Amino acid sequence: MTMLLSLIIGLGLFFAIGWSSRLAMHAVAPAQHKPIYRDMPLTAAFGIAVILIYVLVATLAPLIAPFGEGEVVGDQYLPWAAPYHLGTDKLGRDMLTRLIYGARNTVGIAFATTALAFVVGSILGIWAALQGGWVDQVLSRFVDALMAIPALIFSLLLLTIFGTSVLTLILVIAAVDATRVYRLARSVSQGIVVMDYIEAARLRGEGTWRLIRREILPNAMAPLVAEFGLRFCFVFLAISALSFLGLGIKPPTADWGSMVRENATLITFGDITPLLPAGAIALLTVAVNFVVDWQLHRASGLKE
Amino acid sequence: MTDIWRMIARRLLLGLLTLFVISLVIFGATELLPGDLARELLGQSATEETLAALREQLGLNDPAPVRYWNWLTGVLQGDFGVSMATQKPISELVGARLGNTLFLALYAAALSVPLSLLLGVLAALWRNSIFDRASNAMALTSISFPEFFVAYILVLFLAQTGIFPSMVRITAATTFGDRIYMAFLPALTLTLVVTAHMMRMTRAAIINLLASPYIEMARLKGMSPLRVVLRHAVPNALAPIINVVALNLAYLITGVVVVEVVFVYPGLGQLMVDAVTNRDIAVVQAIALIFAAAYVLLNLIADVLSTITNPRLMHRR
After folding, report:
1. Do residue A157 and residue B29 have CB atoms under 8 angstroms apart?
2. Which of B162, B194, B269, B274 could hold B248 in an S-S bridge, CB 3.0 to 4.6 Å?
């Protein structure tokens, strides 16, 4: 019964948020972009609204949170009652506060990692496509070898060697994901480097760096942006999984993956508190996926 | 027939080559560390004697190629070395757990593959219906869920009421029936995580074919839509479907790590996480190699199977 009720409430919220955010975007958008927002699916509108809420919470975390990030405010595992609206965790820290700071830490670290993977992966990929020959061969075969090992397993191996800290976590995940970005960037720019205008730019005497930045990158942007969204989801899930395993972001830093791990025992007593951080991860990934799906659909020009 | 065997032999050779490169990467990764591996593993407070002992045990005094050769020949004979944390032979630690992990992965595959193929065919048959749209949204959602979220939801609804155990205690004496019963929740978690993707790809593979003229011909003959899909579309869609199934089974290999930790399942994933926490590099290398080998093998099988289902792939030049 409660399951059905929560399902109905969830669906209702989904339509309400999706609908109102579509209306809002339609109202705010400049005139020439209005049709895009009028036809956008509810899922995408919902996704954009959710992402905006996350960004807002992450940036304003210290203002919204009722307590300090690592502050012990009461007994451990208190039930949901004011002033601890979502109860407290196993050390007596306020759950709501930790959730809010988690938005900043988990999402921030995942974003930084994805950005790093993108800068490294796409520059190397475009460079390989531009140079061709042995540079391309060496880099590509090397990346192939790395990609033959499942991503999570390879990250675990690297974390064993370099130790587990936030910095190594970012570098390791970025390195593993950069191989995937490299593949995409290389295959996209291989179609671009054979164009006449690249030939012309080369004859003009443009250097490699300028060719990458000014000639190829702007034309390879659309698929790379869509990939950025997807990649972010993978990175986000990977970091959460590693934190959940106790190998990623460590306490006292508030992080959703390790929060699930710390409070998991509550589940067996029927308390859903540990599901909240896990749900926060799931909701953001769903939202990003919805938006990416819409963008890909729009870019492919499919009308079904 | 000889063509098929020649093709399989070629793929096997390629697979072996890939495995060799993987073993190089897994072994060579330790060389990336600037400075001394022994000191890095034991920390700054380690004494000279313990450092020397660890170096001796890891064979760090030999040059890297010699160590690699010793490691590789050992692995080929089933000897993975000795765990630093427990001082037991790694093959002993891995042995029983490998069986458990394989059991869980096969269990999940047995649940998810038929289910996703069935749902995929239905979605293709009733495309753009409510069922199709709902399944699309569900697929996107389930791809986005972290495994531990799915696992704990299942624990909340199925284990808390006492229907299924939330912890898996498997010993050598556990009967097959009990194993099926106890491993149900982990297997169901993995199933839920991979089914949606396989189902969507099955649907896409079939729908791609539905636009082709021979399908239209079959329709014009007055065939029922179900027969058109099953008899005409599915056989030609097998190659992409097999590849997606293999991709997802390969995904099961990594997904297993998190799920095993949630359900305290005595498998390789759990062992690997413990080994990473203890920085037990020899164990991590051994398990990484086993997982990677399974991954390569799956891709190899998928490659061979999808080539066999499509004669055109056999004769490409």
Report:
1. yes
2. B194
